Amino acid sequence: MNKKIRNEATDGLFRAILNLNSLEECYTFFEDVCTINEIQSLSQRFEVAKLLREKRTYLEIAEQTGASTATISRVNRSLNYGNDGYDMVFRRMEQEDQENK
């Protein structure tokens, strides 16, 4: 875990996020907390991670998402050498999808 970001303020933000109960609440909260560009950047990185896990090429990902190769490379580095946060979330989302079928 990255100790550089761990502090009371970040803990408070993450506790607030954990209290959101729906997509609509997420939109309401994040539109207040972030700029539109910040939200779009986060969602683009998440989409890039999904496509990298599907073994898509950088070119395919860049064309589909508009992400730069630098962004794709950073996300790829997180997937390969990060804290496994993306994998944790994707596994949970896949499990939820299976349960809802």
UniProtKB/TrEMBL annotation:
<dbReference type="GO" id="GO:0043565">
    <property type="term" value="F:sequence-specific DNA binding"/>
</dbReference>
<protein>
    <submittedName>
        <fullName>YerC/YecD family TrpR-related protein</fullName>
    </submittedName>
</protein>
<dbReference type="GO" id="GO:0003700">
    <property type="term" value="F:DNA-binding transcription factor activity"/>
</dbReference>
<dbReference type="InterPro" id="IPR000831">
    <property type="entry name" value="Trp_repress"/>
</dbReference>
<dbReference type="InterPro" id="IPR013368">
    <property type="entry name" value="YecD_YerC"/>
</dbReference>
<dbReference type="InterPro" id="IPR010921">
    <property type="entry name" value="Trp_repressor/repl_initiator"/>
</dbReference>
<dbReference type="Pfam" id="PF01371">
    <property type="entry name" value="Trp_repressor"/>
</dbReference>
<dbReference type="InterPro" id="IPR038116">
    <property type="entry name" value="TrpR-like_sf"/>
</dbReference>
